[in-house]
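seq:
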Amino acid sequence: MAPTAVDPKMIPRARMLRRTMTEGEKRLWAELRDFKRLYGLHVRKQVPIGPFIADFAIHSAKLVIEVDGEHHFTADGQAKDARRDDWLKNAGYRIVRFNTGELADAFDGCIEQILRELRLMN
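struct:
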């Protein structure tokens, strides 16, 4: 499989994840979907990239945005995240991670962090 070729087995799972987004993901998506109009950046949600599904991706900027719930903080979840992060970095992507608490408590700061990563904000 090419470095960023989509594993066809991931497509049905990505579709299911799009239908069952968490509240934090929904709130972030409500903001990110305007990036096309505001910045000319197409953001995709629950998008397969290689053997993984990214919560959000901006392919043109090679940026993946992840929203981490409770299962990401277990030993197994952290090991899976590390493998995925390594794979995505080797494919040329940068990763920004937020936990659901950050999105709830400091939403504007999360958006600012994404914009800084995109170098749209100092």
